Amino acid sequence: MAQLGAGKPDTERPFMEESVSIAICRLHDPSPEVISSAAWALSHLSTETAVTALIDLQKHPDPEVRQAVACCIGLRNRPEWVPILLDLMEDESEVVRDWATFELGSGEPIAAGQIHYADSPEIRDALRRRTEDPYEEARRESIWGLAKRKDSLGLKLLVEQLESGSWWSGDEDAGQEVLSLTIDTPVEELRTQLRRLLMTA
Predict the structure, then answer these.
(1) CA–CA distance from 108 to each of 27, 65, 112 (Å)?
(2) Which domain holds residue 192?
(3) Can you tell me the distance from the alpha carbon of 176 to that of 178, in angstroms, rounded to the nearest whole number?
């Protein structure tokens, strides 16, 4: 149901209301697997009704369900978005922490070439805590999120990553985004410019 008409505008997708209604009903299914699948369907459908149902699942005992909440792009339109992700960034499941950190760390396009990053002392504190996460993917997401906000710790850790012998493509992507450079910028240039930026941060 989540894939019916995928790629089309919501107004052109078939059976949206029916799909959301069925998925919400299946949240009470006796099978945990069905409940998880229903949560993921709601996460992909992201209508107002779907998001409202998902918000009620942020404390669900199944980490797959909590991950579906963290991954719901439609949640960004709700005032509860930041508090929910801040809570999920402290989740016992490493995958849930990773996705919540990614969602909060990543910006959202607001215009051609412009991205808005939700930012506050609370958000930065949460991202800084994740820089010590035992799960590497969550650590990387937190570094990228901080660096994109021109945070000195994030910039420092990003430079260290790029100077190591095992940087990830995401490290390069974050550096290019921070500096507004093209994707073909040599990593040596990224390191140099990031060091300069760090000196003024």
Answers:
(1) 29, 23, 11
(2) 112-201
(3) 6
Q: Is the dihedral of CA 33, 85, 97, 110 positive or negative?
A: positive
Q: Is 40 within the bounds of a domain? A: yes
How many structural domains comprise the chain? 2
pLDDT tens for 58-111 read 999 999 999 999 999 899 889 999 999 999 999 999 999 999 999 999 877 666
Residue found by looking up tokens 């069925």 in the block = 22
Note whether residue 85 is domain-resident: no
What CATH code is carried by the domain that includes residue 48? Answer: 1.25.10.10
Report pTM.
0.91
* Euclidean distance between CA atoms 7 and 10, whole angstroms: 9
